[in-house]
Amino acid sequence: MKKIITLSILILLVSCAKKGPDFVPLTLNWFAYSGDIFAFGKDVAIEPVDEPFSTKCIIAMTQALMDAPTIQAHAEDGMAFNVQYFGYHRSGETSIQFRGSCQYSDNNIDFEKKPMILDPKPVREGCSWSARCTDSGKIKDLEFLGSIGKIQRKKHLGQ
Amino acid sequence: MKTLLLKIAFLFRINILIFALLSLTIVAILAYRQGMDSIYTINPATYPYIVALTDSVDGGNSVINMIRTDSSIIMDYELREGYAYPYASIQIYLGDGKTHGKDLSAYDSVFLWIKPRGEGSVRLYLRGWDSTISKIDNQASLKFNELEFFPLEETYPAVFVPSEFRVAGWWVSQNNVSAHKARVDISNIPLIEIQTGTGAPLGYGTLEIMGIRFKGKIISQLSLTTGLVAIWFVTFFIILIIRFFDYSKERAANRKKREELEKNLKALEIEKADFEKSSKEDPLTGCLNRAGFSSILTREQERLNKNGSPLSYIILDIDRFKDVNDTFGHSVGDEVLVNLSKLVQSRIRNTDALVRWGGEEFVVLCSDTPLQNAQFLAEKLRQNIENTELISQRKVTCSFGVAEMIPGEDSKKLFERADKALYASKQGGRNRVTSASYKKH
C-alpha cells in the first residue's frame, strides 16, 4: 500500500513538473557581404547572386538552422546570430556561403563590409557555424564549429 | 369617416357596380311589365282632322251626317242603292295625311270605342303609305291594312292586335302588288278609316265613335333585352378595364415597393458592410483590429486544419515608441503608426492581413506561409522600416517575433510563442527578428 501511494505521488509529481519551452527562439541578423573577396581566399571569385536565388537560400538556411539539433538544444534561452552571406563561383558552380556567429560576440560590427571571422572554439556550443547553399537552393555542409563530437572540420572557404 | 367611406367604396366599387346593374335590370323588367307604356290616343270629339265620307265619291247615293259631341263623334248615315258596295265612313288624317303619317308599328294593341246603332259589321282601315306603290294624288293607292268586326253594344272597347290586320285582297289585285309587298305594314299610316262593313243593310244607321287608342311600350322587348345585355356587357367591360387598371396600379405599386425595399436593402447592406468594416478596422491606421483579425484567423485556422496549409504569425512592435510620444507628442506617434501601417501594408501580399494589435503593436497573419518564409518576410519588413523615414524627427525601427501555428493548436499558444520571440528580439537589442521554431526533439 505504501508503495502504491509513493508511486502515485511520484507519478503526480512527474506529471506536474514544469516542462521546458516547446519552441526555440532563433534570432537571425542577415548581412549581405560586399567587402573584400580576398579575405575568403584567392581561389574564390565573388559572384553576385540574383534576389530569387538569395531569397531561396536564406529561407532554406533559416529552415536548416531551425531544424539543426545544435540549435534545438538551446530551447531554454534560444540563439541569436549575425549571419553573413555572399555568392561565389567555384569550379563552374555558383553557391552562397553563409557564416554565423552569436550576436553577443560580434556586436557593433558591420558585416556587410567586414568579413566575419568564426571562432573555432566558441564558448557556447553552436555559436559559430558555416554552410553553403547550392545553386539548386539546397543547404550543404552545415557545420557548427567546436561542437562536441562533431569535429568534422572541412576545409572550406578558408576555414 | 368620409375617408373611410371612400375607402370602402373604392374597395367594393366592383361589387357595387354589379349590384347596381342587377338592380337596374330588375327595375327595368318590372318597369317594362308594369309601365313604360307608349299611348297614342285620338279623341274624335276634339281631333280636328276628321272627315265623313260616303260612297257618293264612287258614284253611290249614300249620305252621312257627322256630329261632334263633347265626348264622341256621331256618324249618322243612310246607305242607299247606287254603288255596288254602299258604305259610309269617317277618315281620320294623321301627319300630313298623304305621305307622312304616323308610325304605329311600335304599338301592340288597338283600342276602339265604338257604339253601333244598327246592324252590320264595321271595318277599320289603317291606310299605309308605301312609296313603291302609293301615289300622292291617289288616296286609293294607300295600302288597305284592314280588319272587320262586329262592334259590341257595351261600353268596352274593341281590342285588336296588329297581327289581326291583313291587307285587303281587292287592293292587292287592283294595284297588282307582289306577294312580298302585300304584307301588313303600319309603319307610316297617314289615314285611319272607320267604315261600315260588308253587307251593311241599306237604310239608316248610326255609329258613335268615342275614341281610338294605340297602346305599346316605349321600347320593344327585344330592344330592352338587347339594351340590358349591352349594359351588362359594357359594365363587365368597364369592370375588366377597372380590374386591369387596378392590376396595373397594384403591379406598379408592388414594383415601386419592391424597388424601395431593394434600395433599402442595398442601403442596409452597404451600411452593414460599412459598419462591419468599421467595426473590424482600426480607425487611425485603417488596418484590421482584433475583431477583424479573429474572423480571418478562424478562416485560416480552418484551412490549416483541413489542408495543412501553413499559417504564420508575425508580431512587430515599434522600438521605443513611448519615447516618440513623450518627446514629439502623440500626433507624431500617430504619424508613425499610420506611416508604418502604410509601409507594411505595401510590402505584404494581398493574402496576408495586417492587424493593429493594440498600442504600437502590429500583427501580420501570413496565410500559406511556413515559419522560415515568415521570418524572411519579417526580416525584409524590418529592413524596410529601418531604411524608411517614417517621421522626420528620428529613425524608427521595429522588433519582430515570428511563429508558425501547429495544426490543432490553440491560437493563444501561438501568440504566446510569437510574443516570447518578440521579447527575445527586444532583449537582444531591438530592431531584429526572432522566430519561435517548434521544438522537434
List the helices and strands and how they pair.
The complex is a heterodimer of chains A (159) and B (441).
Chain A: H1 2-16, E1 23-32, E2 45-46, H2 51-67, H3 69-72, E3 79-90, E4 93-102, E5 128-133, E6 139-144
Parallel strand pairs in A: 1-3
Antiparallel strand pairs in A: 2-3, 3-4, 4-5, 5-6
Chain B: H1 2-11, H2 13-34, E1 37-42, E2 50-54, E3 63-68, E4 73-79, E5 88-93, E6 107-117, E7 122-128, E8 143-149, E9 158-160, E10 166-167, H3 169-174, E11 191-196, E12 203-217, H4 221-280, H5 290-307, E13 311-318, H6 321-328, H7 330-347, E14 353-358, E15 361-367, H8 371-387, E16 398-404, H9 411-427, E17 433-438
Parallel strand pairs in B: 16-17
Antiparallel strand pairs in B: 1-12, 2-5, 3-4, 4-12, 5-11, 6-9, 6-12, 7-8, 7-11, 8-10, 13-15, 13-16, 14-15
Helix pairs in contact in B: 2-4, 6-7
In short:
With 159 residues, chain A is an alpha+beta fold. Chain A contains three helices and six strands; from the N terminus they run H-E-E-H-H-E-E-E-E. Chain B folds into two domains: 39-217, Jelly Rolls (Sandwich), CATH 2.60.120; 290-436, Reverse transcriptase/Diguanylate cyclase domain (Alpha-Beta Plaits, 2-Layer Sandwich), CATH 3.30.70.
**What do we call the CATH homologous superfamily of the largest domain in chain B?**
Galactose-binding lectin
Structural class of chain A: alpha+beta
* Strand residue content of chain B: 25-35%
Overall pLDDT score of chain A: 78
Radius of gyration computed on alpha carbons of chain A = 20 Å
Q: What is the 3D shape of chain B?
A: rod-shaped
Rg on CA atoms of chain B, Å: 59 Å
* Share in helix of chain A: 10-25%
Describe the structure in your own words.
The complex is a heterodimer of chains A (159) and B (441). Chain A contains three helices and six strands; from the N terminus they run H-E-E-H-H-E-E-E-E. Chain A has 159 residues and is an alpha+beta fold. In chain A, strands 1, 2, 3, 4, 5 and 6 form a six-stranded mixed β-sheet that branches. Chain A starts with a helix and ends in a 15-residue tail after the last strand. The longest helix of chain A has 17 residues, at 51-67. With 441 residues, chain B is an alpha+beta fold. Chain B has two domains: 39-217, Sandwich (Jelly Rolls), CATH 2.60.120.430; 290-436, Alpha-Beta Plaits, CATH 3.30.70.270. Chain B is 40% helix and 26% strand. Chain B is built from nine helices and 17 strands. Chain B has helices at 2-11, 13-34, 169-174, 221-280, 290-307, 321-328, 330-347, 371-387, 411-427; strands at 37-42, 50-54, 63-68, 73-79, 88-93, 107-117, 122-128, 143-149, 158-160, 166-167, 191-196, 203-217, 311-318, 353-358, 361-367, 398-404, 433-438.
